[in-house]
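Lecture notes, unit on binding sites. The following record was shown on slide 14. It pairs a sequence with zinc ion.
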Amino acid sequence: MNIHKIVLPTPYAIGDVNAFLVKGDALTLFDAGPKTKPAYEALARGIHEQGYSMDDIEQVVLTHHHPDHAGWVDAFPKADVLGHRYVDYWMRQSADFLHYRETFYREQLEQENVPQEDIDRILDAREELELFGTRPLTRFLKDGDEVPGHPGLVAYETLGHAQSHFIFVEEHTGEAIGGDLLLEKVSSNPLVEPPVDLKGERPKSLLQYNASLKRLQKMDISKLYTGHGDAVTAIKPLVAERLTRQHDRAMHVLQLMAQHNNVYDLTKALFGKTYVKQPGLTLSETLGQLDYLVAEGYARSEMQNGVEIYMPA
Ligand SMILES: [Zn+2]
C-alpha cells in the first residue's frame, strides 16, 4: 500500500490521532481528524508534504464517526465521503436524530442509576457535537465492499468501539487500516451508542467489540495502521492480551458486586475521580463488563423501579 501517516492533534485525553493518505488509482484520505484549527493545519501540512494540495483529495473514507476521526470531512467539499451509514446521522445531526439520541441516553443513564444532575451534564456536552463534520456521506459502505480506486482493499464491519466501525484490509499485502479496533498502547472503549436502526435494544458494545477482535485475530494481517499511536505487527498476541485483560477486569467487577449492584455505584467504586472527569467513558466501560458477566453466566440482572440491578448468578 502506498500509504503515508499524518499525525493530528486532538483536544481529547487520547492525544494525537492518525489520518492516512493512500495513493492508488484514486487519492484517498482515511479519516480526517477533529474539526479544530490545529488539526486542520497539521492535515494541510501533511498533505502538502506529500506533494498534493487539499483539492487533490478525491475521497475521504471514514473508519468510524467519532469526532477525532471524522471532523475535517468539511475541508474537502469536492471529495466523495464514504463510510458506514451510521456516520451519516452524526454528520447531518437532524432534529429527529438529536432528539432520538437525547431520549436514548436519558433512558439509558436513568437505568444505570446516574443522578439527574450528572445526566444533564453528560447530555449537555455540546462541544462534542461541534467537532463533528457536517458533510453527508456520498456513499455508504457495507461489510465486504471494496474501496473505490483501491482494488483489493476491502472494508470489514467491526462494531463495538463505535456502531459505525470499519477496518480496511488489503488482501494481497496483508496491510490494513484499523481505526480504533486495536491500538498499540491502550484498550479501546466499548462506548454505549444508539443502535444503527435507531430503534430497539441498546447494542452490547463490549460483546460486539470482542467479536470484532476475534474476527481480526482470524485474518492474516501483517501490519495494522492504527488510529492512535504506531502500527501493530504482532496482532494475534496483542488481541489475546486485550481479551485476557478484559476478562480479568470483569472478574474484578464481579467481586465489587458484593457491595454495589448498579452501573453508577459500580463505576464510582471502580473509577473514583475519573468518573467525574469522564462519566460517559467510565459508565460505558462498567456496563460493558456487566454485559460480559451476564453473557458468560457469571451474573444476572433485573429491573427494579426503573434501575437495572445486577447480582452474581
Ligand atoms: Zn479514536
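Take-home: The chain is about 40% helix and 20% strand.
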